[in-house]
Specification:
Pseudouridine synthase, 21% helix, 28% strand, Structural Genomics Hypothetical 15.5 Kd Protein In mrcA-pckA Intergenic Region, Chain A, RNA binding, 15 strands, PsdUridine_synth_cat_dom_sf, alpha+beta, pseudouridine synthase activity, 3 domains, 312 residues, nine-stranded mixed beta sheet
């Protein structure tokens, strides 16, 4: 039953999550983040066998679970406004490639009140594929809010299905540049380590044995006294993958305070976000075939940081 507060669900705990923490179980059952699941429990929106549980309580198979889920994010509306700085790199009847500025997410999500790529394009009159959830129409991959660079979106239904499959099958060549603290050893290498939600449940991700397979290839382009400019080739596309893998080898992205970057370095370089830019996309065009490739230049704040390091 759907109410003004959300969607009410009642069901027994499945056998497959016997013994898990309640917040982890709810996250798995309803496709939520563990942080959001913990918030539902704390707000009294979860009952286990008729009682209000704690987020760390262990669930037993067959126990009765009552959950009031939050309403889904509202679909983009016609009143959305164009997003300043969101530039169109290429557009045809099937795809549109954009250069995303910082402070913009791909699509509306619960809790995000800032601009989105999706709403910005719709407000500019771009017609996108309607496949998938209404709040994610046309979206075939994402960038973090404060990661800049290239994104491709599907305009036709055929393009949507072909591009989704291409990203899933890892046939899209995604290249990023990132500035990391110190110098990786070796200067060229691969980080092959599974990524999952951080055990703290605070919204971060981490290298964990129970995570999903994640592979990041890196190559040093330029070494400075206290930092290195790397080119990254992603074999997989996990949330925060580059940021997590660089932090895991002791070389966090400059400015990425969430994953352990030194704030004194980012302050000296004038960086208020992670130095990470999606600079190249190469893939087979979803309808007419043939390889297409797009490149993006660094935005001014990233350029200034590199120039400062060169002067040093």
């Amino acid at each position: 039953m759907t109410t003004a507060a959300g969607d009410e669900r009642s069901m027994p705990v499945p056998d497959g999550i016997e013994g898990e923490r309640l917040d982890a179980a709810i996250a798995r059952m309803f496709g939520l983040s563990r942080t959001r699941a913990a918030e539902l429990i704390a707000d009294g929106n979860v009952r286990l066998d008729g009682s209000e549980p704690g987020k760390s309580d262990r669930v037993q198979a067959g126990s009765w679970l009552d959950v009031t889920l939050p309403p889904p994010p509202a679909p983009p509306t016609a009143t959305a406004e164009p997003v300043p700085g969101l530039a169109t790199v290429y557009e045809d009847d099937d795809i549109i490639v954009v250069d995303k500025p910082t402070g913009v997410v791909a699509h509306p999500t619960v809790g995000w009140t800032g601009p989105t790529v999706l709403e910005g394009l719709l407000a500019s009159g771009v017609q996108l594929s309607t496949s998938g959830a209404a709040e994610r129409q046309g979206i075939v991959h994402r960038l973090d809010a404060n990661t800049t660079g290239l994104m491709v979106l599907a305009k036709s239904e055929t393009a949507y299905s072909v591009l989704k499959r291409a990203f899933k099958e890892r046939t899209v060549d995604k290249r990023y540049h990132t500035l990391v603290q110190g110098h990786p050893d070796p200067l060229r290498g691969t980080v092959d380590a599974p990524i999952g939600r951080h055990p703290s449940g605070d919204g971060r991700f981490a290298v964990v044995t129970s995570g999903r397979p994640s592979v990041t290839h890196y190559d040093t382009l330029e070494a400075f006294r206290s930092a290195s400019l790397l080119e990254i080739n992603l074999e997989t596309g996990r949330t925060h993958q580059i940021r997590v893998h660089m932090a895991a080898i002791g070389r966090p992205c400059v400015g990425d305070h969430l994953y352990g970057a030194d704030p004194t370095i980012s302050e000296r370089l004038g960086i208020s976000r992670q130095w990470l830019h999606a600079m190249r996309l190469r893939f087979e065009h979803p309808t007419r075939g043939g390889t297409v490739e797009f490149d993006s230049s660094y935005p001014p704040d990233l350029v200034a940081a590199v120039e400062q390091l060169r002067e040093d």
